[in-house]
Amino acid sequence: MKIFYDHQVFSWQKAGGVSRYFIELMSHLPEDMEYMLPPMLSENVYLESLGSEMSPVKSWSFANYRVRKKLYEAVNQLRSSAIISGGGFDVLHPTYYSTYFLRRRKAPFVITVHDFIHEKYPQYFTDTAKVIREKKEAVTHADRIIAISEHTKSDLVDIYGIPASRVDVIYHGASSLSPVQEPVPDAGDRFILFVGDRTKYKNFLNLAEAFMTLSKADPQLRLVCVGQPFSPAEMKHFASLGIADKVMARFVTDGQLAWLYGNTACFVFPSAYEGFGLPILEAWSAGAPVALSRASCFPEIAGDAAAWFEPDDPSTMVTAISDVIYSGDTRSRLQQLASKRLKMFDWGKTAALTAGIYRSLA
């Protein structure tokens, strides 16, 4: 049985949860299933693990990445369209929401809905109208819909009026961290870890305010952020809080990320909204205790294996993080609970359940 995954997310995402989801899914498909990918122009770091055919366009210096992404999308869509028109596969699973294929497809298609961030926070994106229009059309015409959490399924039913009977909830799995750890010396001996974008709905400013209070009581404590370096506006804000010399942000290697997860005093995910929250599983895999905002899908995913705070109340964040860092009993309890809960999230199970949907449509 052949499943065709198109180009979409690989045209614009170098690394991230959506492209990782599809790579893990393809890597764990049952033996009786074969995935198909179009030859692509891409800079996605995960594609190399599949040995996928890629063109080294990333070495071209004629344009910045934003321009190159548009080129990739245009060329890759032509290639995907040609394959879809020709058939030769049993099920189509688009990797994002564009419905360019609707008039060409000869096979049933499955769509995975990851979140409703554009619908809930439209002001933070320049492509909101396009994403919402395409997503609505995709879920309307899909033969089956996968939601990555019950919370996402609930949003799908509430926002787009999709019947719950058309939607299957299939959780992500826990991806393996690099077995080779690379220390990050300037992280300090005791640090809080934040991973990902710091867009406003990610609630990072409240974490910074909470860290100000924590660092006054513990001057050796640091806040380490994995992602884009701080902007001048962020540094100005940190200076006003008196924490500019205690925070750092950088991109890291896989080995450095594994080391940070394995050595953090507390991994904090303060976001007001997520569709799933893969970094929670990454932290658990490394044995890191976690503190989470009591929002969106987090209670569903983490259960009792996290310390909880209110996303809009930095004082509750201080209390939760302090308990994780300074109470040995709390750390030990959360680590034990996380180890048990992590068994719920397995990419083999994700792929097996998804394969069941493919079979039902073929």
Q: Would you give an account of this structure?
A:
The protein has helices at residues 8-12, 17-27, 65-86, 117-120, 128-141, 150-160, 204-217, 232-241, 254-263, 278-285, 298-302, 314-326, 328-341, 347-361, and strands at residues 2-5, 34-36, 40-41, 54-55, 91-93, 110-113, 144-147, 167-169, 191-195, 222-226, 247-250, 266-269, 290-293, 307-309. By secondary structure, it is α/β, with parallel strands linked by helices. The chain has two domains: 2-173 and 346-361, Glycogen Phosphorylase B (Rossmann fold); 185-344, 3-Layer(aba) Sandwich (Rossmann fold), CATH 3.40.50. The chain has a six-stranded parallel β-sheet with strand order 11-10-9-12-13-14, with helices on both faces. Strands 2-1-5 form a three-stranded parallel β-sheet, with no helix packed on it. The protein has a three-stranded parallel β-sheet with strand order 6-7-8. Helix 10 (278-285) links the parallel strand 12 (266-269) and strand 13 (290-293). The protein is globular.
